[in-house]
Amino acid sequence: MSALGSIAFSGLQAAQTRLAVSAHNVANMDTPGQAAQRVREVAAGDLGGVSTQVVRASGEGVSLEREALEQITASAACRANVFVLRMAQATAGSVLDLLA
Q1: What's the pLDDT at 46?
Q2: Which candidate, 74, 78, 38, 32, places its Cα nearest to that of 58?
């Protein structure tokens, strides 16, 4: 896989993690003592891309508005990264066609 493909794939995984964490927050919002979780994204060094870590939010409850926005944003990130993966695949295919 190309560097571009690896970066897009890690972005897709990060967006999926954000969706899962947000769904967890909504599903458990009425659980006593349950604090919201958040996803911390960190650049993955020289290789590019991103790595994620799920962390406990600092003293806040769950806001449905914030979770809805998180899910919309993560969904858009999924679509954007899938687009990049498709373009990387199409570009690689075009280069191979030129060499054949």
Answers
A1: 72
A2: 38
